[in-house]
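Predict structure. Chain length: 201.
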Amino acid sequence: MKLKIFKTLTLYFNRLFFMIFLYILLSFLFLTKSSFGQDDLRKAEKSFRDWSVFVSKEDPEMCFIASQSIKSEAFRNNQKLSSVNREKGTLYIIKILSKDNEYEGTFYAGYPLQVGSKAVLEIDNKDKIVFFAHPSPKAKAEKDHAWAQKFDQKKLVSFLKKGSKAVMSAISHRNTVTKDTFMLTGFSDALSELEKRCKLN
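Prediction complete.
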């Protein structure tokens, strides 16, 4: 029983460290591209239109592609707001190094999400993937992110490969509804490049 609890805690803290590091990484991702150099990356980034490839040399190693929203809207009580205090939404697909062809879809909202809420990604007004905010967040990174479920990961990647535009609808901790639009041009090329660059050794 004690061993099981220890393993559970270990997995939790490993994931927590992982997400905190990603949050810091993504906070400077698009604001300081020129300084995001050899000290931070095992290999230089490469961009394919709307998507960029990143391969970290940190421990644990991380490989992912990311894109920022090109359009952001916010609504409260069904009324569109002229402006909100938030960072741009970012959608990223993380490569799981230990497993072939497995990814993790994650959404960075740029603000604290409603605890345990759903964020829905709609691709070309037809295909939908649900992301979930953390049910009991403590660290800031846990409050600002939502994750696709494991069994939806392959479907998510498949939809993004085929699509041209994706819109993420999410709910803030203040009950503000946001809609972030992502263009998918270059997604397939970025994913292929990620597979080439992201290796276990």
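Summary: Residues 2-197 form a domain with the Immunoglobulin-like fold (CATH 2.60.40.1880).
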